[in-house]
Amino acid sequence: MSSSRDGRPRDPRRPARGPAPRGARPDRPRGQSARPRRPAGQEPPRRRPASRPRSGGGAPPSPPPLLRRRFRRGDSQRRLRMAVLMMAAVMLVFSGRLVYVQGINAATYAEKAAGSRMATIDIPTTRGSITDVDGNPFALSVEVRTVFVDPEEIRDDERDRVVSELSSRFDLDPDAVAEKVDAAPDRYKVVEHDVSPEDWKDLSDLGLQGVGAQKDYKRVYPEESGAADLVGFVGDDGSGLEGLEAVLDSTLAGRPGKQQVEMGATGTQIPMAGGYAEEPVPGKDVRLTLDQDVQWYAQQALAETAEELGALGGSVIAMRPTGEVVAMADYPTYDPTDIADTDAEDRKNGAVADVFEPGSTNKVITAAGALEEGVTTPETVYTVPFDMQVLDRTFKDSSFHDTERMTLNGIMAQSSNVGTIKVGQQLGAQGLYDYLTKFGFGRPTGLDLPGEEAGVLKHPDDWWGTQLASVSFGQSLSVTAMQMASVYATVANGGVRVEPTVVAGTEDEAGEFHPSEEPAKERVISEKTAEEVSLMLEAVTGEHGTAQQARIDGYRVAGKTGTANRVDPETGQYEKRSYTAMFVGFAPADDPELIVQAVLHNPQEKYYGGEAAGPLFKDVMSFGLKTLKIPPTETEPPNIKLFEDE
């Protein structure tokens, strides 16, 4: 056995190493090519350039073996593990989100989902009542039902019966009802409003599937109240539009409740799907100072008198000396439950909105101011002719008489224009203006009623030469019936003016009464002056006065007539044969309890205040004294001197 160079025995089966002869090929297994095969598309390896032989000769070095690119087979198990881990991570994220949505925050997402198909609507509340001083209603809300159908719930075998029952019970067109019954997929179709609870119960007892009702409220105005122009009315949405309904809307309205309802696919509301989110709060009841019986009678008496005399309009006010209005009637009037055929003029409250010259009823202010300022006395004597020249104008009394020597008492009892001008000249323009404003002219009365006018009263700086004379007896200024009634209430109240009021207070849900704030008060004239003026006014209804027809058996009555030319608002000139007739007074004269103001605009048959408005005053005053249980004083009036020679 031969051995290798390192001394180890050489395997005879292994060929000896050594340089192969030039051109000889190394041994290779059979069937194997001399070069390894390249994979398809792989470029052949680049060979290094042959080394140049070193100088000095010798055998050249052996060429380097061919460079081969080595390829590693991918690990399929590793790729599988990576894919599984990635899938597990994704599933973990989804699972965590699902747990958060369905477990941890389930309520929030359920609420959001429900919110997408739920809505909140207002639930009507009970509007407060408007009552008289004793709780008798002028306006109240009654419970009614709004009947509807849910077309999706109506059974096919009951369809015709539902149409028949609804159309016959509510007197509706069967075709219109059928259209609502067949309106699926809608879930809510109103069939009829203002159905009484009794009528709904009769219908509900039939057990018709898909027919329901919602609670609602309807405003009712008792026909016998006669206070439409004052009370006003509400709109279709239940909010106040005119009168006290509008002025006191925030008090009467209350606060609507909130209810969740499901919204159908077409946007219709399904009220049975949700419950109350907020309970409704009823409105407060408003108690007025009015007496319903006196109000009703005043309205009836005014309407009858106006129609009898062919008057264009009129008003009657009854009030207490302390300012509480007992009645406020107006003509023409309207039905607050049917306003479709009315206009703003029909609905106007003329007692505060109609302005007119006060005529002789204004003489009480001229006399009171002169007495208060001490420039005259009740028995001061004046020379009073039938007419009197002031600059370029001649003023006359209403009927001819010889020149007479009258006291201030007589001037008032006889309603002399000329005598009153002389008293006004003593008081002066500024003095007269001051008392007119103190008595409430030229500004609203304080009632804060819609449409209330302040009247017209110019400052003395703007009066022309004869205006002191004309203002003294009630021309060249304008007032409302409420303003003039307040003047006589001031005299009746011992000279203290109290702002008129119609609201006594409110009553809350618990039934507790809350009185209104005390009205403003102001002393205008002394008690002594008020008493002297009262005696003068009582003489007007006496034996020698101009209004004997206003006397009431058993009672001492003080009052004053008034007749004034009407002014055309378009031309500013007096209308021919167009007058305003007035009478205002109080009783009992020595202990006043009730004031009544009667005004008739443009009466045709009779137009003097005494003969046209006097009987109306007497009618309403007599009823008011009886109804309010005001007894007579059972005293006799003193004799007062009307003329110098008495």
Describe this structure in words.
With 646 residues, the chain is α+β, with helices and mostly antiparallel strands. It has two domains: 168 residues, Penicillin-binding protein 2a (Domain 2); 309 residues, DD-peptidase/beta-lactamase superfamily (Beta-lactamase), CATH 3.40.710.10. The chain is 30% helix and 21% strand. The protein contains 19 helices and 24 strands. The strands form seven sheets. Strands 2, 3, 4, 5, 11, 19 and 20 form a seven-stranded mixed beta sheet that branches. It has a five-stranded antiparallel beta sheet with strand order 13-12-24-23-22, with helices on both faces. Strands 1, 8, 9 and 10 form a four-stranded antiparallel beta sheet that branches. Strand 8 and strand 9 form a beta hairpin. Helix 12 runs antiparallel to helix 18. It is elongated, with a radius of gyration of 52 Å. The N terminus is likely disordered.
- Do you know the CATH topology of the largest domain? Beta-lactamase
Q: Please indicate the percent range of residues in DSSP E strands (runs of 2 or more).
A: 15-25%
Count of extended strands: 24
Number of domains: 2
Q: Number of helical runs?
A: 19
Note the overall shape: elongated
CATH superfamily descriptor of the largest domain: DD-peptidase/beta-lactamase superfamily
Span between termini: 191 Å
Please state the average pLDDT score.
Answer: 86
Largest sheet: 7 strands, mixed
Would you tell me the structural class of the helices and strands?
Answer: alpha+beta
Under the CATH scheme, which class of the largest domain?
A: Alpha Beta
How large is the radius of gyration?
A: 52 Å
